[in-house]
Amino acid sequence: MNNILIKKSEDNLKSANKLHEIKCYNSSVHCSYYSVYQYVLNVCKNFNPTEYINIEKEAVKNGNSSHQKTINYITDNCLSLSLNNNEVSLFTRNYNRLKNYRVIGDYKNLNISMNESKVSIELVLNIINTLKKINNGND
């Protein structure tokens, strides 16, 4: 069975790279962020399908407010069981940095720089590599 969330994550990473190449840095960061978030949802779905269903329901009801809940769930219940404290801290710092770039790119009266766009893509790769360690081959 094809994994739709992983495919969406991969598509968003490809889009982020293409958008970076054509100097659409704000949109590139947006796609970078969603590449990670979709991968996180996949990990959650594999780790605890019931919690994934609850997150989906909350997303429909509350919009994007489910993002932080999802990240907290992954950090507290998945990463902390499989990784050491330094790896969990690095994941959290990288995710928060990427999220901050997305907030700037999506909502602030500021533009993302070429370097910030490039760093965002690098963060995606780092974050997804961390998540792959706990996803039990469910890519």
Write a structural description.
With 139 residues, the chain is an all-alpha fold. The protein has a single domain (4-132), classed as Nucleotidyltransferases  domain 2 (Four Helix Bundle (Hemerythrin (Met), subunit A)), CATH 1.20.120.330. Helix content is 82%, strand content 0%. It contains 6 helices and no strands. It has helices at residues 4-21, 25-47, 49-62, 66-82, 85-107, 114-132. Helix 2 crosses helix 5. The longest helix has 23 residues, at 25-47. The model has no long low-confidence stretch (mean pLDDT 91).
- Supply the number of helical segments: 6
CA distance, first residue to last residue? 11 Å
**Number of self-contained structural domains:** 1
Provide the succession of SSEs. HHHHHH
CATH class, please? Mainly Alpha
CATH fold label: Four Helix Bundle (Hemerythrin (Met), subunit A)
Q: Can you give the mean pLDDT?
A: 91
Please count the beta strands (DSSP E, at least 2 residues each): 0
Radius of gyration: 15 Å
**Derived structural class:** mainly alpha
* Largest β sheet strand count, sense and barrel closure: none
Instruction: Give the overall form.
Output: globular
Helix content: over 70%
Give the CATH H-level superfamily.
Answer: Nucleotidyltransferases  domain 2
Proper CATH architecture: Up-down Bundle
